[in-house]
Write a structure and sequence with these properties.
By secondary structure, the chain is an alpha/beta fold. It is about 40% helix and about 20% strand. Helix 1 crosses helix 3, helix 2 packs antiparallel against helix 3 and helix 10 packs across helix 11. The chain binds adenosine-5'-diphosphate.
Length: about 400
Amino acid sequence: MKIFVVNAGSSSLKYQLIDMENEQVIAKGLCERIGVTGKISHKAANGAVYEAETPMPTHSEAFDAVVYALTKSEAKVIDSFDEISAIGHRIVQGGSIFPKSCLVTPDVLTKIEELGALAPLHNPAHALAIRACIKTFGDKIPQVVVFDTSFHQTMPPKAFMYALPYEYYEKYGVRKYGAHGTSHRFVSDRVAAIEGKPKADLKIITCHLGNGCSITAIKDGVCVDTSMGFTPLDGFMMGTRSGTLDPSALTFIAEKENLSAADINRICNKESGMLGISGVSNDNRDVSAAAEAGNQRAQLATDMQRYQILKFIGSYIAAMNGVDAIAFTGGIGENDPELREYVCENLAFLGVQIDREANRTRGKEIRISTDESRVNVYIIPTNEELAIARDTLAIISE
Ligand code: ADP
């Protein structure tokens, strides 16, 4: 059985075709510059590559290019799309409406579009991709939607509410929704599997550290708190995002510099974080290299991010009254030994002990704490596409 996983943005479309017999990727690719020009880069598992520039005025033409790449190009992997059992879509925002993945129906599609108010850069693009799939594949292939927010829907109100006038929650749904939920779920499932215990018996903290970063507290098998909020700007500093700060700093800057709400949004989302502090780059590798070369602001950015991550982990240990396992994932989480060492050394008072040799590992599933450590610490490479494919398969098999 083959599942096609789609992660659509407004001008891009990432995809993977996964064979669910062995959970291996058969082919993957990326369509870029949709609505502008159009380019597809496609790679089959056997190494064959297909690349083409082809007009993609809408997501429909992008899917046409994907069908060609999969079924006819020099890197083809199937004879026909009929071999595909279902399509699974990543959806950024499911609001309070979608606590779990579900089949696409006209009603579900309308709700995803309506939730565009909470995720204007993402949900409208996801809806376009779903409509394009319906146009290209008709109703022959079932489509499933998997929401980044679903895993966080178990947070209690004391964790998800902001202390603003209650009417904004009632009128506009202003509350914490979280993000990266599919990754936090996948990683915490892996932790439980490695520990050989039911997830419900473990207190787990998962740290998804990539361009976007979030940390989640998982107790009794469910998410009880997460660092991202109403939008993925909340939490601690990221590549270009500020994370949590005093809102009056923003109103002060807006007044001083005569800035609009849109300007503030842009500054906090695109010009802040590691980039804003270091002035070097949003990329962890560039900032670390600059810090090593003596750049003080790059060092400050690194120090700030590590300190903020540590504080979130500490607060979640308090929130759960303990922790059994901490897992690092994402480009930074999987590849930055210094950050992991900093966190573990500052949790030594809890009996966390890092195995320095194991901690040198990059991008591989491994325990990086010692046998004596009272908390197990892991690197767990995330696989959101596989999690989406598994959900998709489970739903069409119901
Ligand atoms: P996204 O959130 O876009 O999926 P990733 O999870 O790929 O991002 O993470 C991107 C971040 O991971 C970048 O800051 C990058 O510098 C960092 N990263 C990737 N590989 C390494 C590495 N080998 N060492 C340190 N940082 C790395």
